[in-house]
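The methods section describes the discrete structure representation at length, but only in general terms. Since the whole study asks how a given chain folds, the encoding of that fold should be made plain. An entry of this sort, consisting of the sequence and the corresponding backbone structure tokens, reads as follows:

. . .
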Amino acid sequence: MQELGSFLEVLISGLLAGVLYSLVALGFVLIFKASGVFNFAQGAMVLLAGLALVRSLDFLAHHGFPGWLAIVLGFVFAGLVMALCAFFVQRYVLGPLINQNALTMFMATIGATFVIEGVAQFAFGSEVYPLRLFPTDAWIAGEGLFPGGILINKLDVWGGVIAGLLVIALAMFFQYTKTGRALRAVADDHAAAQSVGIPIDWIWFVVWLVAGLVALVAAAIWGTKLGVQFSITFLALKALPVLIIGGFTSVPGAIIGGLIVGAGEKLAEVYLGPFIGGGIEYWFAYVLALAVLMVRPQGLYGEKIIERI
């Protein structure tokens, strides 16, 4: 029973950690699904959102605002910052590149990454800022079944609940709203969407704004876990295998991919790591993604691309 308890603890920890990866991957999926652009700047957007949030909370707390009001106003301010980010990226980076090829768009987002990182640290500072919006202690479950019980981190559970609500909201947005259907039309063909009167500039602003708000949610949770710091931008690299496994165009796929990556790397580290010297957690997800690419290049839930000549 003790071995089963240890296995379940590692598995649950991995699944919940995978959900946190999915929060970052969702931003990539939203922009790729709506515009066909792989947004390399998503990690920088998480950094910008986190810095805007934590610095505004510090300012409001210093000036005597009640805790709940400071949190509300902090999220409002950070949301406005992300709206400005979405406007400038759409207006000055992607807007002039409408109907250009995917590689050109991708290179533009790489340039936007360095601009966003620089502006974020210039405006809000480059220190490591602690953020405490969610509890970080753990529950002990199943004490009557397993010796010592199973530790479940409360922050990871909060992340799982929030990610689930985001997936439901985004799925309904894409499926049942006029703007969501327009987003899918723009992704299929920019020129055709323009020809039927869909305002691409507005659509791209909306999708970058939504991705920015998702980045804000991810920043709130990851900032509580790691602190708000420059290294948070590297979460984008951790989201890549999640995207490859789940599929670049699938919102539910981002969650499933995250669960697979999170559980896989934790189990591999615990049960395979001792045989190969450890450190497997840092590269196992990429090996898993490579295996999926060889079998199903579009990912488990991605749309299969068929080009006819």
Summary: Residues 2-233 form one domain.
